[in-house]
Amino acid sequence: MANLKFPDGFWWGAATSATQSEGTVAGDGKGDNIWDYASRHYNNRFFDGVTTQETSRFYTDHVADIDRMKALGLNSLRTSISWSRLIPDASGTVNPLAVQFYRDVFQRMRDAGIAPFVNLFHFDLPMYLQTEGGWENKATIDAYARYAKTCFELFGDLVDHWFTFNEPMIPAEAGYLHDRHYPFVVEFKRAAQVLHNIVVAHCRGIEAFRASGLTSQIGIIMDVIPVYPRSQNPADLKAAHMADLFYTKSLNEAILKGHYPSELNEVLTQYGQRPEAVSAEELALIAATKIDLLGINYYRPRRVKARESLPNPEGVFAPEWFFEPYEMPGRQMNTSRGIEIYPEALYDIAKMIDRDYPGIPWFVSENGIGIQDEARFIRDGMVQDDYRIDFLKAHLACLHRAISEGSHCLGYHMWTFVDCWSWMNAYKNRYGFYRLDLATGEKTLKKSGVWFKQLIQANGFELTQTE
Ligand code: BGP
To answer: Could you give the residue numbers annotated as active site?
Structure first.
């Protein structure tokens, strides 16, 4: 039996986002974002056709939800501001109801001892900007900088931890290369331009923050999918190197080291895939931008092997030209989501940060397990989600090992607090400490919520030899 204690003041909390939790009500003044639009107009792409309207009702239920957070003992929670709620149309006018709502949320959280961690952008671009070209249009960067400045002015007194973006790779990758998110484009060069413009927007957000005079902290939240090669064969190692270069280093190096990897520039030049609109001024801004805090979202590893066939040179250029997914025999799977469960990666991520970006304060900003049909685990009115407790224990044990070896990890936020709506999967996979009954709106604590509360109270947990 080992008693795993975490550092004093460790952030124990959960994460969610505006579009996934708030929902909308008539008269709230919210404008459409790409998810409101896509879940109506491409409804068949969303599990059971559930739209953003029907999310977990945080907009109307936030007082009770903050009581629920308090009941769990969370000392911090990350959510985001919905840009299209705050600034509903192209005129740029601020929606007073949104200001009232977010100020009330952040104040109530503070009063309950829950530090609001506030993110400015979680995949949800206002539709009026998307119709003008979205993140491909440099005007969106200017609009983002104005929006960020507005948020700092309106809510700066209530928020101690700000984030510019959640998973900045996703709008580029899922929206412009892999056909998962609106606008469903499949074109590498456009994806690369979107990614670059988002990196610049991040820098402009930090610039606006520094100019605001606020003394709180600002950072960014990135998803890291650690890459593991099938074998030590040089071709497999090269495949892993390329997967890491495209999907992790491209962004990490730009944000944390101030420049894109030169090897990536060379590969993109060779294949004629470099984004065209990249100015010397933007590159200088990237080089000059520093963050205070890094959030890491971790869900799964990426196992790869050398390709077994040549890519079609006339096909769509993609990072997958350089590697193939590897299905390792015996891997532990979350079959609901079709992804591998590999807690050890959290230790590897901590080591990667220590090695490649030493000194940066960081925390686990998302980690979690989405399970389909959780109602089948209800006994005596409670979801008996022992699998989630096992998941937590396994991941926290790896994180604890890294911390005890000196990693500067400040906290752990679970995805998520109440079951919430998800991009494309809607309410298929449930992640929350509280179960949401979609039909009645009822929210009930799961067994994992009880366990998490005890974990927070003890600032640690006991791990038996067999776990
Ligand atoms: C992360 C996102 C979250 C959340 C989570 C769960 O990448 O930041 O918004 O959705 O993944 O994934 P999914 O909703 O696809 O099951």
So the answer is: 167, 366
Q: Is the shortest distance between the CB of 429 and ligand 1 below 6 Å?
A: yes
Q: Give the whole-angstrom CA distance, residue 248 versus residue 232.
A: 20
Q: Which CATH superfamily is domain 12-386+408-445 in?
A: Glycosidases (3.20.20.80)
Tell me: the pLDDT tens digits for 1-44? 789 999 999 999 999 999 999 999 999 999 999 999 999 999 99
- Ligand 1 within 6 A of CB of 297: yes
CB of 421 closer than 6 angstroms to any ligand 1 atom: no
pLDDT at 55: 87
> Which pLDDT belongs to residue 465?
73
Task: Give, for ligand 1, the residue of 366, 369, 427, 429 to mutate: max count of ligand atoms closer than 8 Å to Cβ.
Answer: 366
| Residue 108: predicted pLDDT | 99
- For 337, the token pair is 């989501």
Look at residue 281 and give its three-state secondary structure. helix
Determine the pLDDT at residue 121. 99
* Ligand 1 near 334 CB (within 6 A): no
For a ligand 1 pocket test, name from 163, 372, 415 the mutation site with the most ligand atoms within 8 angstroms of its C-beta.
Answer: 415
Residue 197 CA to residue 180 CA, distance in Å, equals 20
Q: How far apart are CA 307 and CA 311, in angstroms?
A: 9
Query: Degrees (nearest 5) of the Cα angle 62, 65, 67?
Result: 115
Distance 422 CA to ligand 1 centre (A): 6
Predicted pLDDT of residue 318:
98
Task: Kindly compute the dihedral angle of the four CA atoms of residues 370, 376, 377, 382, in this order, to the nearest 10 degrees.
Answer: 100
* Residue-level pLDDT at 348: 98
Give me the residues of the chain with pLDDT under 50, please. Answer: none
Which positions ≥6 away from 160 have C-beta within 8 Å? 115, 116, 216, 217
